[in-house]
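seq as requested:
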Amino acid sequence: MKNLFLILAGALALANTAHAADASDARWIEGRHYVLLQPPQPVQVPAGKVEVTEVFSYGCPACNQFEPIMRELAARLPKNAEIVHVPASWNPGESWPLFQRAYITAQVLGIDGKTHEAMYDAIWKTGELAVVDPVTHQLKVPQPTIGQVARFYARVAGVTQQAVLDTAKSFAVDMKMMEADERVKAYGVEGTPTLIVAGKYRVNNSSVRSVDELIDLVLYLVKRG
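struct tokens:
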């Protein structure tokens, strides 16, 4: 009888857990909280990993404000998930093509871990690479250059300016920029920042009411994989 009681108690606990999971999953509605991409897009992470892609630009003020959320998301992702950044370029007036080249250059050089957050600071805090005048709130003239980025990378990442310039002008970086543009288009992204999970799901940021809800939604989509 005792064993039967334990079995029944275990079954009840499992049923309650499953019910709670179902109730949690029911919060997220396709077409409202996320869009199912058709067709699914290729991912850049190894087999067995779930890709969480952020489409962003250093020149985007919303992306700058979103960066702490990305750090929190990274800390809460399961071990089988990996964040990938895809830089957008559709706003040349605010130097997005330059910043796309800058990110991909850092990626090719293997220094993006040192430069990623520092770039946001240089644009939006210290003003070293700012695109907007903090006093007039007008676009700066001239805008930042790849030469300024090279000097910045040399200081924060310990590479030579020439290495940055040579890489930035390389065929490999040009190709990766084209690939980034193609990915952004295939994702159907219309604004930044936008999150894509597993190459299948485009998150609707405006459908959630808090950072915790956004992260819960991403974790749900990661689990779906």
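The beta strands are 34-36, 50-56, 81-87, 194-197, 201-203.
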